[in-house]
């Protein structure tokens, strides 16, 4: 194990043993958590409670990848350069525009003697904490990435802290599939919890044909929702969603498919209301574009709950928007972590062939 014999006070803060929160890796500005830091120290030498991972693949979050693609005019070389520049300058993958990151898969290389994560050298894992707070170094120049997919094959290393979260990759699915599922596992877990607690009869999933949306639809049904409304932006996704059957084979993944622009508040809410059951008791927002707050608010019944899973969500727009239309709704920000979230998502994928097929389709399309 490589541990600095004399910890640098600027790196280590007040504890030579390091901080389980990763404070000893913050280079600037001082006194903030790693996610809020502008720059982290990604050196490979680990502290007693840290784990070093040999990185195999990154999964950029959808909002970040969209922003990088649009700002680079879809040019793969420019996208690769942008990612490399971010990681080199910040010591982590945190898009400075969206503030978001993603997650990674890799192989555990070294485990500190005080690490509480239960990992061993050689374990194949997915990290369940954001790249926006994970010290990271990329060593291959992203030579194996075509810049066209959120999944980024690469070589390098990453550091996990004592309070980090990681899960061993399941043996019955590819690394690409497991990463896709674990990247969004917080969404179905929180959806399941909220639908169960609220005893919600009607659930609207905005972006139901996507990764987090399809899993959330399955989770809502498992939690007892009587009617699941799936909202998609165009006919192609509607066809995919209509074709997806629930795992029990008795009905579709959703009960009603609605084609609507999530950025059109009046149009979206009218479409959900006309779906036969709306407005929703619980609305789950799983799209990666800004401007969807108003539509979610108007699509939700008074006393209902909205879960925002998009990194493009504006807290200001949501709060003031609800106030402006006198909407008595509870609004939750999905933070990506719910106890047991990874296992719940993996179990859903195993039990729902329709959802698994939708995930695999995305992987196959990007591979072409």
* Helix/strand/pairing category: alpha/beta
> Largest sheet, order of strands side by side?
6-7-3-4-5-8
What would CATH call the homologous superfamily of the largest domain? Answer: Medium-chain alcohol dehydrogenases, catalytic domain
Number of domains: 2
Assembly type of the chains comes to single chain
**Helix proportion:** 25-40%
Computed CA radius of gyration, to the nearest angstrom = 21 Å
CATH architecture of the largest domain: Alpha-Beta Complex
Specify the CATH class of the largest domain: Alpha Beta
Which outline best applies?
globular
Question: How many DSSP helices?
Answer: 12
Distance between the termini: 42 Å
Strand element count: 14
Keywords:
globular; 6-stranded antiparallel sheet; 368 residues; 6-stranded parallel sheet; single chain; 12 helices; alpha/beta; Quinone Oxidoreductase, Chain A, domain 1; disordered N terminus
């Amino acid at each position: 194990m490589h541990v600095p014999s004399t910890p640098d006070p600027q790196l280590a803060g007040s504890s030579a043993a390091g901080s389980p929160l990763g404070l000893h890796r913050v280079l600037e500005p001082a006194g903030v958590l790693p996610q809020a830091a502008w720059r982290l120290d990604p050196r490979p030498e680990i502290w007693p409670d840290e784990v070093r991972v040999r990185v195999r693949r990154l999964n950029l979050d959808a909002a970040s990848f969209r922003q990088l693609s649009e700002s680079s005019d879809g040019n793969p070389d420019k996208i690769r350069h942008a990612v490399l520049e971010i990681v080199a300058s910040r010591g982590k993958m945190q898009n400075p525009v969206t503030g978001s990151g993603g997650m990674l898969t890799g192989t555990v290389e070294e485990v500190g003697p005080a690490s509480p994560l239960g990992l061993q050298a050689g374990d194949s894992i997915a990290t369940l904490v954001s790249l926006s707070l994970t010290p990271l170094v990329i060593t291959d120049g992203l030579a194996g990435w075509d810049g066209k997919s959120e999944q980024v094959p690469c070589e390098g290393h990453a550091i996990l802290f004592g309070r980090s979260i990681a899960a061993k990759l399941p043996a019955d699915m590819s690394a690409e599939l497991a990463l896709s599922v674990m990247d969004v596992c917080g969404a179905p877990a929180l959806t399941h919890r909220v639908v169960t607690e609220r005893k919600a009869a009607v659930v609207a999933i905005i972006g139901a044909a996507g990764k987090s949306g399809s899993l959330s639809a399955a989770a809502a049904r498992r939690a007892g929702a009587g009617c699941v409304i799936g909202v998609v932006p165009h006919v192609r996704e509607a066809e995919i969603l209509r074709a997806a059957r629930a795992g029990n084979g008795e009905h579709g993944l959703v009960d009603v498919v609605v084609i609507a622009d999530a950025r059109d508040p009046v149009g979206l809410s009218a479409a959900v209301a006309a779906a036969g059951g709306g407005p929703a008791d619980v609305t789950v927002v799983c799209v990666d574009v800004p401007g969807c707050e108003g539509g979610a608010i108007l699509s939700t019944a008074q006393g209902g709950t909205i879960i925002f899973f998009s990194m493009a969500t504006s807290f200001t727009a949501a709060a003031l928007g609800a106030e402006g239309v006198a909407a008595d709704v509870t609004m939750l920000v999905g933070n990506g972590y719910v106890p047991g979230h990874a296992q719940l998502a993996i179990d859903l994928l195993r039990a729902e062939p329709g959802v698994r097929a939708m995930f695999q389709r995305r992987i196959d399309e990007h591979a072409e």
